[in-house]
Amino acid sequence: MDEIRIFSPATIANVSCGFDVLGLCLDSVGDEMVVTKSAEKGIRIKQIIGAGLPLAAEKNVAGVAALALTEALDPEYGFEITIYKNIKAGSGIGSSAASAAGAVFAINHLLGSPLSNKELVPFAMQGEKLASGSAHADNVAPALLGGFTLIRSYEPLDIIKIDAPNELYATVIHPQIELKTMDARSVLRENITLKKATIQCGNIAGLISGLYTNDYDLIGRSLHDELVEPVRYILIPKFKEIKAAAMKAGALGGGISGSGPSVFALSRGVETAQKAAQAMAAVLEGTGIPFELHVSPINPTGIKIL
Amino acid sequence: MDEIRIFSPATIANVSCGFDVLGLCLDSVGDEMVVTKSAEKGIRIKQIIGAGLPLAAEKNVAGVAALALTEALDPEYGFEITIYKNIKAGSGIGSSAASAAGAVFAINHLLGSPLSNKELVPFAMQGEKLASGSAHADNVAPALLGGFTLIRSYEPLDIIKIDAPNELYATVIHPQIELKTMDARSVLRENITLKKATIQCGNIAGLISGLYTNDYDLIGRSLHDELVEPVRYILIPKFKEIKAAAMKAGALGGGISGSGPSVFALSRGVETAQKAAQAMAAVLEGTGIPFELHVSPINPTGIKIL
């Protein structure tokens, strides 16, 4: 095989009580990428359709991830990458992660899959490092593995994939304001109370338990973030109203997607997820803030070959 | 039925990364209690064998829990309680919880079980409040339900039972020094870093995941406590050596049982748990500190009728 076309999905990191350790994979929104073997070694970003991103491989998240992988595997040939960008940069649903994860997935596949998708995570993380300054895994891991992914530990890297209950749907609204990851990080408090940490531990443990037992109510009861949402939500216009509208429409719970500005809700069943979408949209309509809306099942396997 | 004899088990609260939210139920160590209906209303502690504890119902943890339950259920008769105490007070393996949980379990059973074991938890918590000043649930819940119990939230109380993998065994060593729960609480830091909280969240999520998937290695990798053990271990003689000895003997992981001074280890298989016991004992032998040693499977159902 000399060419591969893939769908690389958007992802929701943090997932409320799972700050910096949880992510989930979306199914109905993502980038497409075409990667082709070339006789000449190295990585070339041929074209990026839909976004004004740098083409120089060492300045592009897909390029940097691809370079990290080819440096490790040292293949006989090079790769050309074309990216059809559907996920908006800075949306908070893993735009850079989709590019980085997609690049290493495609190249690994063209090389006969010497590495597992889990083994590709550290290479994709290099793209995240370029994008945000920190080599975080909570978007690239769900993009590569699907379902929910737990980053139990970074040193050493320990990733656990958790299947999502079948009827779980995500709703995402992306208010199109600029919110830099760095700014979203800067509002975080370095110190928190032991009591809040304990509450957070109870909730993430409850969420994990709910995922394994398909207990939608428990998933909903656990979707509370004590640590980050209370200080970060002020950066997102109408956050509280959007979340309240989703809950009123029947969503199980929700929060900030990644470091924002997207807001997500989880629901049981596509109908409720769509009702939540309408309710969330109604809050932003009339504010003059443009937005995008996504309703998606949880993608069970991550990146797909088209 | 006018009389019931029960076995009320010891329990391990906190379970390393599960500070204040997790507990597990032991099987091979516990108290026995005999509870008898009496024509005269009220609660009478007839006798406590094996410990010098107050007999006045309102000053006894079993008595207080029983009074809370009978106040709610308002039965036509009273109850007499005899306690055969095998769990040493102040050991850190739920001595007061066993008495409190046992009392409400027995009375509920004699009344034809109007409440579920989970519904009994808040009444048993009243005994804990008398014992330690705080109505915590992380010992009474596993005593009443068995397995592992997660206290996802206290307000409202939300308890999730998680079955333990079959081959999981606990080893507990109880160095017989005096360590008051209040003193063990006083060393805790009120504030912690967000980074440590995040690491703790990763570990408790990993532990819960390991319990649902019978992944013993993951359980072991997750048994790290960032928040409490690093400041509390100094109160326990030879803690680091005891834990290291258990790990060297093949245990998956371990930590402080409850607020100490008991130290626990979890192992896969009874043989490894016994080897861990020997290794842990070897550390305290020769120090002059007397100790008790327990090796136990995880009790799947909690309190038993004898």
- Radius of gyration of chain A over all CA atoms, rounded: 19 Å
CATH top level of the largest domain in chain A? Answer: Alpha Beta
Task: Summarize model confidence as the mean pLDDT of chain A.
Answer: 96
Level-2 CATH architecture of the largest domain in chain A: 2-Layer Sandwich
Oligomeric state of the chains? Answer: homodimer
Q: Secondary-structure element order of chain A, as H and E?
A: EEEHEHHHEEEHEHHHHEEHEE
Describe this structure in words.
Chains A, B: Residues 208-284 form the GHMP kinase C-terminal domain. Chains A, B: GO terms for molecular function: homoserine kinase activity. Chains A, B: Its main location: cytoplasm. Chains A, B: Belongs to the GHMP kinase family. Homoserine kinase subfamily. Two copies of one chain form a homodimer. By secondary structure, chain A is of the alpha+beta class. Helix content of chain A is 37%, strand content 28%. Chain A has two domains: 3-163, 2-Layer Sandwich (Ribosomal Protein S5, domain 2), CATH 3.30.230.10; 168-297, GHMP kinase, C-terminal domain (Alpha-Beta Plaits), CATH 3.30.70. Chain A has helices spanning 61-73, 95-110, 117-132, 140-145, 181-186, 194-213, 216-222, 229-232, 239-248, 270-284; strands at 3-13, 22-38, 43-49, 78-84, 148-154, 157-162, 168-175, 191-193, 253-256, 263-268, 291-297, 304-305. Chain A starts with a strand and ends with a strand. The interface between A and B is large, with 40 and 40 residues.
